[in-house]
Amino acid sequence: MSLTVFIVNKSYPTAGLALLKKTVQATVVPYLDYEESSLKEIKNSIKGYDALIWNTKHRLTGEILDLAGPRLKVISTMSSGTDHIDLEEVKKRGILLGNAPQVLDDAVADIAVGVMIAAARRFKEGVKEIESGEWKYGVQWMLGQDIAGSTVGIVGLGGVGQGIVRRLKGFDVAKFLYCGRSDKPEASTLGVQRVSLEELLAESDYVILACPLTDETKHLINAHTLNMMKKTAVLVNIARGGVVDQDALYEALKENRIFAAGLDVVTPEPIPSDHKLLTLPNCYIVPHLGSATINTRNKMATIAAKNVLLGLEGKPLLFPVI
């Protein structure tokens, strides 16, 4: 009997699918995340597979793992983050789990710089005025914030954070700060100083969130920490929506307690079209485009495929989480 792999979202790139089909039987759920039948189809069809590629925002729970049954040996995400997977439930069943880190670092770092500039230079307001025929002139029109000479604080100096620093070196940033759970050996080479979160928030003109979503980082940016930031500061989130208390962010932006925010990630996703954050002129949101390049997504799919194929062969995963 051939080995079988279940892929839970039909958007899985053909680069990964082609690799899988060389040696295993691959089945793809014919729905996208946001389609009503998606989760129901996953639950109805998941039983009896040897491996699972969890390329969806739906949470992988103990209930779903029970439905999958005892034949399941290995799981891989297509993402770097694993906050959508119940790690304890996977671990206690002795199932291998892999992810796809590093490969998306450059693409996400690009988006971070993009939304940073867009928010700081008021792209949302400017485009709206063009489209409404209200383009004005004058030396005091649509003034934003400089990057040159600024202090940039990065929460989480992993691969993405380091990529952001490398890109911003060309913008003549005066000082780079970071905070995190541990010292990063790359920090000295990059010229980044480790400080406390409180110091980072108080000193930074740009606060960039590039950390994983954990119990420790959930709502790390909240009413209290937003009040530590400069009135001229710009907040950038390319981590996960849950790192920010969006109600508190809305109030801070509405009351101009910080200058602007640029968000690639929100909660929930997709964000409802009537969400209050979308009404703010100083909140620039893009729809989680961080890793959304053709090359990056193909690489992510290939890594996920290699993870499960290696696991099925009894070999170490390319990028093991468990």
TrEMBL record:
Cross-referenced PANTHER family: 2-HYDROXYACID DEHYDROGENASE-RELATED, FI03731P-RELATED
CDD domains associated with the record: GDH
Classification via InterPro entries: D-isomer_2-hydroxyacid_DH, D-isomer_2_OHA_DH_cat_dom, D-isomer_DH_CS, D-isomer_DH_NAD-bd
Similarity comment text for this entry: Belongs to the D-isomer specific 2-hydroxyacid dehydrogenase family.
Transmembrane intervals: none
Alphabetical UniProt keywords: Oxidoreductase
A GO CC annotation given for this chain: cytosol
Domain (D-isomer specific 2-hydroxyacid dehydrogenase NAD-binding) ranges: 114-290
Residues in D-isomer specific 2-hydroxyacid dehydrogenase catalytic domain copies: 13-321
Protein name as catalogued: Glyoxylate reductase/hydroxypyruvate reductase
GO MF terms, alphabetically ordered: glyoxylate reductase (NADPH) activity; hydroxypyruvate reductase (NADH) activity; NAD binding
PROSITE patterns per the UniProt record, alphabetical: D_2_HYDROXYACID_DH_3
